[in-house]
Amino acid sequence: MTRIAEAWRRVPTVSAKFLLILVPSLVVAVSLCSALFYYDRYKDLRAGLREKVAAIADINAAALTNSLWTFDVPAIRNVIQAIGANRELVCVEVSDDLAEGRFVWPGSDCPAADDALVERRAIRVQNLQVGTLTLHYSQDVVREQLRQEVMNTATLLLLMLAGTIAAALAALRLTVGRPLGRLIASILEAERGGHEPVDWVAADELGRVIQAYNAMLARLGQEEAALRKSEQRLALAITATRSSVWDYDLHTGHYWWSKEFPALLGYGSSELPMTAETWSSLLHPDEAERVMAESRRRLRDHAMAYTAVYRMRRRDGQWAWIEDRATAQRDADGRALRLTGTMSDVTERVRAELDLAHERNVLQVTLDNTDQGIIKVDGDGRVVTANRRAAELLNIAPEVLSGNPRFADIVAIQRRQGEFGEMGDDPDLYLSFGTGPGGTGMAATGAASDDGFGIPLGEPAGMIDQPFTFKRRRPDGRIVEVRTNPLPEGGFVRTLTDVTVEARSAEEIFNAMQELERAYADLKETQASLVQAEKMASLALLVAGVAHEINTPIGIAFGCATHLSGRTATLAEAFEGGTMKKSELAAYVATAGESSRLIEQNLTRAAELIQSFKRVAVDQTSEERRRFDLLAYLEEVVTSLGPTLRKSRHRVAIACSPGIVMDSFPGALSQVVTNLVMNALTHAFPADSKGHMVIDVDETADGEVEIRFADDGVGIPTENLPKVFEPFFTTRRGSGGSGLGLHIVFNLVTQSLGGRISVDSVPGDGTTFTLRIPKTAATASPPTASLTTTPVSLEPVSLEPVSLEKEPA
To answer: What is the pTM of this model?
Structure first.
């Protein structure tokens, strides 16, 4: 019988067993076969029930491992309820051996073992039994199923035995064999670590079992994924922070650390025994006694957290800085039971702190060797940084500033020493310097008002919320510029600069401006003399040109001097009132420099005009000579005339072949082109007309270039052609013409550039100036004709101040 049973069990499928029973029964007798079949069927159902219950016990014992270990009561109850979904089970019981707890379904207790069959499974975590899963099941379902099958089979065999066999086999395969096969395959896959759900959906019991199994499998996968993710995060966090976790049980003396600790010191995970002696042997000799003393102190005091930084020896012999953070677990009496903490490698941070301290020392030495005084005050109003120059300019002992005093105390010392004078208008007496209302500043404490200085008591103290600059005159006569800038985190940085020399220079500039005003008055007298000379019949035309031409540079110089005088008076008022700022002085110096340049430039221009009236030719002056591309340079000159051209409707075109290189004086050529353009704008075109000017350039075979400047204006009358290059000849004396433009062109072309110039014009058909200039100028220094004819609108009887900006070229 045993062999038969073993052979029977080795039959791979239920269908095969069914056939093995059915076919012999048909041969011998329907009744005998039926009896044998249902007898074996009864055993199969019982065995299947046992296997099923055993499988449920095995699977759910594994599922309860983590929940029982973590004592997750909701999860335990959920698993028990899922197990109870099997109708074969009468009662489910889970015992917790560690917590001595017990969970029972569906009631509070299970029936005795005699009344129901029992299947037990031990719940283990790493070979440690943490509980037991007990399943109580009944065979009523089997009996009921067998009874139904006997009745159905008997009836069907009588009616259609052959059809019943085929239908039974088909039904068995479709309803049991296939889902059971998939379930078995999934269980085997789960044993190998996979989580492949069973692809079967049915409303019967087997379908519900498979559904419950799939749900359990999904939960198991999620829990495993969450556990792996949590472990990965912890490992990444420990690795990223170069830390390790340790635990020390004070009762057992057991010392444990994570695998990252040996790695911090360059050891393998198994090279360092997990003992307190190993840890203490790695400490730096200079710090071992201190660290061990602190460790013993942790056991005595009642603090819960500790932090210590010390050095430990690496495997390569170097020393690593370790930051040890520990938390103590204590009993009700405050005695430490165990210590748990982390050890982190902070070598880079400690080195950075040491480097920072070194840099601070270097910074202090650098500041002490700076000619500018520097003070930094924090948000609490205390001096945190100061150099020796600041102590000198504040007239405070360096050791006082190095002691981090309150800035209000510094102000009080200066006030007692008379640094603020008798006026009491120094800004330091009115500001709280980062302490805010009610702070420790001079104004906040009212210390500056007890003897007549500072603001009255009860008035609000000032706050520094924006940069400001002022100048302070010390009792020894030196002038110190004080520049203050607030810091975002509170407090401020202040620089002190000795500007005594600059202030004196400003006074000298002021005196120079007065001299320029006197010179301007002398020039006005000269102008009056020229106007008086205009009455002479023989010089009437010349004097008219002189009066108009000299008025332009003199007017500009007078405007500059007037503007500078006004700025000087404003600066003098600010200086006398003690409110002068460095930015105002810097602006004044820039204005004075620009004014001086314009005054000098225009007075030089006036002097050159006066010189021009004494002689016919332009004086010879030096001018830079260099190589330049003619086309590019002409385009630059025309571009520079853009502002003037844009005021009119006239346009200038250039027709020049590229690659013509000149070795000449570009400044002279620029003035020639400028004067020709300005002459055409003044004389060639009627009002509201749109004219065109063309600069046409050709190379000649004899090493010269021919430049033709042509316009389509009204032309030059025939009687005036011989006079166009004469000085002071103009047909627009009262409309911007000086009579010197073409004369300067003639002198620049013939003398500076060493060429020739001619003019052709037909009234009503435009004018053409033809210049022939050598590509390589003569070696002699060319004369300078600087009498520019750029029109400047300035009435001779109303000289208004001009803006201090650069003149157009």
So the answer is: 0.31
